[in-house]
Amino acid sequence: MVKKGAEKISRTQEVVAREYTIHLHKCLHHVGFKKRAPRAVKSVKEFAQKMMGTKDVRIDVKLNKHLWAHGVKAVDRRVRVRLSRKRNDDEDAKEKLYTLCTHVPVDSYKGLGVTVVDE
After folding, report:
1. Tens-digit pLDDT profile for residues 87-101
2. 1 versus 45: which is more confidently predicted?
3. Contacts for 99 with CB less than 8 Å, ≥ 6 apart
4. Element at 45 (helix H, strand E)
5. What is the largest CA-CA distance in the chain?
6. Sign of the dihedral defined by the CA atoms of residues 99, 32, 26, 24, in that order
7. Best CA proximity match to 79, nearest among 27, 16, 15
8. How do beta strands 97-103 and 57-59 pair?
9. C-alpha to C-alpha distance for 67 and 37, rounded to whole angstroms
10. Cα(81)–Cα(65) distance, integer angstroms
11. Distances, alpha carbon 54 to alpha carbons 7, 8, 15, 116, in Å
């Protein structure tokens, strides 16, 4: 039972970094060839919003190049990403935190789960 005077701590306000494997093949099912890579970028942004709870999501240049590496229609089935929730230093920013998505190169996706990364 929670005491009346105890404050609830919001976990979405912490600065944290985690590594996820995103299954893009599910997201790109029934998507036309010329829209697959742009939809993959949107899917990564949507996934980051869900997992980190921030509206402001920024994709790293290397992750964008990795998603577009085989062209517009031949996107990889899976991608390993590091999602870092960081503080926004802009004075006129709408949100205090933003999420930075970076690519993590791996040899195999077997047995990888969600891992918390110390930065």
Report:
1. 998 878 888 999 999
2. 45
3. 48, 49, 52, 54, 56, 57, 58, 83, 84, 85, 86
4. helix 36-52
5. 57
6. negative
7. 27
8. parallel
9. 7
10. 13
11. 22, 19, 12, 18
